[in-house]
Amino acid sequence: MFHNGGARAVMLKEVAGVRIPDSKIARDVTQFVRDVEDDLLFRHSLRVYFWGSLAGRRRSLTLDPELFYTASMFHDVGLTASFRDSHLRFEVDGANAARDFLRSHGIPEVEIERVWLAIALHTTPGISAHLHPIASQTAEGVMMDLVGVGFDAFIEEQRNAVEAALPHPPGFAEDLLQALYEGLRHRPETTQGTGLADVLADKDPHFHRRDFCSLMRNSRWANQIGTER
Amino acid sequence: MSLEPISGVTIPDSKIARELTQFVRDTETDLLFHHSVRVYFWGALAGHRMGLSFDPELLYAAAMFHDIGLTQDYERSQLRFEVDGANAARDFLRGHGINERDIETVWNAVALHTTPGIPQFMRSEIALLQTGAGMDVAGRGYDQFTHAQREAVTAAFPREPDFPHAMIDAFYQALKHRPESTFGTFNDDFLAFKDPHFRRADICTIMLSSDWRH
User: Fold this and answer.
1) How confident is the model at residue B210 (pLDDT cuts 50, 70, 90)?
2) CA-to-CA distance for B172 and B152, rounded, in angstroms?
3) In chain A, pLDDT over 70 holds for what percent of residues?
4) What is the pTM for the complete model shown?
5) Chain A residues with CB-CB distance to B202 below 8 A
6) What CATH number should be reported for the domain holding residue B115?
7) Which of A183, B5, B14, B164 has CA 20 to 30 A from A53's CA?
8) Which residue of B121, B185, B190 is in closest CB contact with A193?
């Protein structure tokens, strides 16, 4: 299932001065995610770990490496084949998978909650930056890897080191959009009112984006004016 | 505000709740103030119906602060209006000696009340604020409330004659100076409705033209 790139990535220990934790739980995280994700998502997730860690250092944040590694690695697990029957948001599926994993490893609930929220909110703009560093750095790492947000804030040597170890493959953006679509096409309703609706609109000509103003103007309340005031 | 209980739900009658009411009463228009109190009732009524245990005072705080970020105090903010409201609630509650864990619950409730599909898996107060707001602005779960409940709440805290358009206008006035804060949320629908020149940012275009392409 995994090509050479994936196998090589697993061997990574340190990039740009950031280490992948060398513990049983981190190795189990790597194994879990490598078994369910393809190279595209697996390597994207590893880069998110490095971007988020590097940006966290720049901001002098205290970040538990194991918990942050878990959040980074699980953030897209909800897009995988195991969730093709789910009608939850894919972010919640990933958050729940991480929670189950961490519980089985005896991690305290308060820390599990932080990882859960980091994954659940990684596509929600403008909130994570105000939360615990695990959430802020997951979102920051994701935005750097997907769209280059904060690109220039990274030292060029850091960018080059991460890219040398885990290069963005040719066609990365197109392939990631396709991976999002594959993970969401059976549950388009879960994207309404989120940025992911753009992916459905781009890929599916029959997708109808919900307009919140229409929803308000045509709600059940609309028939009640004059009778329940 | 003294009021007969509605299906067992009352506005908490504590010092902090009264100060909350006063603070929001002084800050918000009737439109938002009445909306916020109704949101509390819908949330609390739904909580009772679902048998959830929740802290009425925290739910009341979250409901009363949830749209504070739409007021003039934030006409220069570039944050999401939900975050402005969450921060205001946090500051208020800290000033009243509420513990940090409860403050975090209220912060999350306010910050996430427009984020679909996530609050229902979080603490009751967070879930119920979204339930209440969805009922009041979009009639979500309308039929799960009894006719008597709907009558009693809207009699005490009336919906304006054209509530949807008044709310759309309130959102627009509060967000037009910070359109970027609506990206990836449904708040951009308010800008698109009111401003024919508004162009919604599209995540696919952004991904396909990022720095990684150069």
Assistant:
1) confident
2) 30
3) 92
4) 0.95
5) 198, 201-202
6) 1.10.3210.10
7) A183
8) B185
pLDDT in tens, A120-170: 999 999 999 999 999 999 999 999 999 999 999 999 999 999 999 999 999
ipTM: 0.96
Whether B168 is covered by a domain: the verdict is: no
Q: What is the dihedral of CA B21, B24, B30, B33, to 10 degrees?
A: -70
Chain A interface, best mutation among B41, B115, B178, B213, by max A CB count within 10 A? B115
Burial of A81 (0-12, 13-18, 19+ CB in 10 A): exposed
Kindly list the residues from chain B whose CB atom is less than 8 angstroms away from the CB atom of residue A120.
118, 121
Q: What is the pLDDT of residues A19-31, one digit of tens each?
A: 999 999 999 999 9
* Partner A, chain B 131-150, Cβ-Cβ below 8 Å: 137-140, 142-143, 150
Comparing CA positions, the residue from A57, A78, A40 lying closest to residue A178 is A40
B138–A89 CB contact, under 8 Å:
no
- For chains A and B, CB pairs below 8 A equal 140
> Could you tell me the residue range of the domain that residue B146 belongs to?
15-159
| Residue B108 falls inside a structural domain | yes
Distance (Å, whole) CA B39 – CA B60:
9
Chain B: closest CA distance from residue A228 (Å): 6
Would you say residue B214 lies in a domain? no
Looking at the DSSP assignment, which residues form a beta bridge with residue B9? B6
In 3D space, the residue among B115, B205, B29, B206 whose CA is nearest the CA of residue A131 turns out to be B115
A228 against B91, higher pLDDT: B91
Angstroms from B71 CA to nearest CA on chain A: 19
pLDDT, tens digit, 9 for 90 and up, residues B16-48: 999 999 999 999 999 999 999 999 999 999 999
Task: For residue A13, give the DSSP letter.
Answer: -
DSSP tag of A115:
H
User: Is B78 an interface residue toward A (CB < 8 Å)?
Assistant: no
Residue A127: exposed, middle, or buried by beta-carbon count in 10 A (0-12, 13-18, 19+)? Answer: buried
Q: Is the pLDDT of residue B70 over 80?
A: yes
- Contact list in B for residue A40 (CB cut-off 8 A) is none
Minimum Cα–Cα distance from B111: chain A residue: A127
Residue B68 φ then ψ, to 5°: -60, -30
Whether B19 is covered by a domain: the verdict is yes
